[in-house]
Design goal:
501 residues; Urease, subunit C, domain 1; TIM Barrel; 2 domains; nine-stranded parallel β-sheet; four-stranded mixed β-sheet; 17 strands; binds xanthine; binds zinc ion; zinc; guanine deaminase activity; Amidohydro-rel
Length: 501
């Protein structure tokens, strides 16, 4: 394979929350170090022939379709509140410069729950966990899982894990997710298998072996036996990830206490100590549901808030991703900001499980760093584009319950920014992912938007482009009606990891 490739076409990105940047040109990507880094962005290239002329016949040129664009990397420095509450105009202001590509980051997804997408009935968090989630997760490692109660053949949990993990990675890649922070299950073998599959398929992934060992809250069929076992299996899973990718660039472990109620206090302390000793990423849930918050109060009477529980156990670090954060107090937000801890906003899940309206605008105003998560299978879809839509929708409900105030509304560019630049910050890859800057990694999806033909027949996808729309309007239409049919190709670190047939 040649070391360098030129990508020619339209590049769209959101370098700032309310800026949609659209430009045409070329990216020269170098895979010399196996990383697929942008060596040069060249806005003087006007055609594929031009690119050949400039970069030589031996450098392949990959061209985006005329009716499409590269939508990768969103860039960002440290996020500060950009929304001036008095200046409503800034929400709708889209700067029209030129544009380029983008990465999509799913900052919170349970790979093991993928078979349950769409299955949640009328449940809310705590009964959803016991009714749907623990039985499914346990079936990826425990032949005595309640899911095998009526099995006619001897169960093969690892074979099931292989099917599930291959499928969820296919789905997320097909939806343009180039980086994902995964929860697996408590099972070491199955978690290592998820790492193997993600690495082989080339998705950038953080792999979390789920820690849960508190007998009052975890069923006997699905929990670690003791703190010692939790720590030993966590360490073994970390070692496995490191054995696959020493650099930790493409694949890395992430310490994963399921949520405070599922872990013994001693376990939380030891996980915090491990994260600190080895400077590891951490992911967990926080303040998703009111009954959950009451449970935390009951189980941790010595800590004043849910956030304080994590802080007390040294789990509130700059490398920690907290999913949900729907019901935080202002004091909790301030502590999270002080610790530089990150938030994964999971709007589809919050709506599906009736958890509440997450006030993203307030968090952004407080200066918190926020990305988007699908939270499959609390969330019903593996698509981060769908998470963008849901984030926009939920923000409007937040505005409604706050007196109909539109300052809470997230715009499309802002939603895309959260899904890319925001996500890059949340996973600690800011400046490396999420944009089309020289030196950044080529984690990019190519989007196509078919035009309706003159007879008014439908195009191949749900996004009907008539031809007269501006590119800004086309991007809006893509966000509201797009899906995996609009994702033609996906690259991670310059490697083609998905191509739509
Ligand atoms: O959305 C969620 N999904 C889960 O699996 C979970 N476990 C604890 N809290 C949770 N929230
Ligand atoms: Zn979750």
């Amino acid at each position: 394979m040649p070391q360098k490739t030129v990508y020619f076409g339209r590049f769209i990105s959101t370098p700032q929350p309310n800026e949609l940047l659209i430009r045409t040109g070329a990216a020269l990507v170098n895979r010399k170090d196996g990383r697929g880094t942008i060596e040069k962005m060249d806005w003087t290239v006007g055609s594929p022939q031009d690119a050949v002329h400039k970069y030589g016949i031996d450098t392949p040129v990959v061209t985006a379709k005329d009716n499409g664009f590269f939508f990768p990397g969103f860039i960002g420095e440290c996020f500060h509140s950009y929304w001036d509450l008095r200046n409503r105009k800034s929400l709708t202001l889209w700067t029209r410069k030129m544009a380029n590509g983008c990465l999509q980051t799913d900052t919170h997804i349970h790979a093991s729950q993928y078979p349950n997408v769409g299955i949640f009935g009328k449940s809310t968090l705590l009964d959803w966990l016991t009714t749907y989630t623990f039985p499914l997760e346990s079936s990826l490692g425990n032949p005595k899982s309640p899911m095998y109660r009526n099995a006619t053949e001897p169960p093969d949990p690892l074979a099931r894990a292989k099917t599930v993990y291959n499928r969820v990675i296919s789905r997320t890649l097909a939806n343009g997710t180039t980086t994902a922070s995964y929860y697996a299950t408590i099972h070491l073998d199955a978690t290592n298998l998820l790492a193997d599959i993600a690495f082989a398929r080339g998705q950038r992934a953080y792999i979390g072996r789920v820690c849960m060992d508190r007998p009052e809250t975890c069923p006997e069929y699905y929990r670690d036996e003791s703190t010692e076992q939790t720590i030993a299996h966590t360490k073994a899973s970390i070692e496995h990830c490191r054995s696959l990718d020493v650099s930790g660039e493409l694949l890395a472990p992430i310490i994963t206490p399921r949520f405070a109620p599922s872990c013994l206090p001693e376990t939380l302390s030891q996980l915090g100590a491990l994260a600190k000793a080895e400077d590891l990423r951490v992911q967990t849930h926080i303040s998703e549901n009111l009954s959950e918050i009451s449970l935390v109060k009951q189980l941790f009477p010595d800590q004043t808030t849910y956030t304080d529980v994590y802080d007390h156990h040294e789990l509130l670090t700059p490398r920690t991703i907290l999913a949900h954060a729907v019901h935080l107090s202002q004091d909790e937000m301030r502590l999270i900001k002080q610790r530089k801890t990150k938030i994964s906003h999971c709007p589809a899940s919050n709506s599906a499980l009736g958890s509440g309206f997450c006030p993203v605008r307030v968090m952004l105003d407080e200066g918190l760093e926020v990305g988007l998560g699908t939270d499959v299978s609390g969330g019903y879809s593996t698509s981060i584009l769908d998470a963008v839509r849901n984030a926009c929708m939920v923000s409007r409900h937040v505005g409604y319950v706050n007196g109909g105030d539109s300052r809470y509304n997230l715009g499309v560019a802002e939603g895309l920014w959260l899904a890319t630049v925001g996500g890059a910050k949340v996973v600690g890859m800011q400046g490396r992912l999420g944009g089309f800057e020289e030196g950044m990694l080529w984690d990019v999806q190519e989007i196509v938007l078919d035009e309706v033909d003159p007879n008014g027949e439908r195009g191949e996808t749900e996004v009907d482009i008539f031809g007269w729309e501006t590119w800004e309007d086309r991007v809006e239409k893509w966000v509201w009606n797009g899906d995996d049919r609009n994702v033609r190709r996906v690259w991670v670190g310059g490697r083609l990891v998905h191509e739509r047939q």
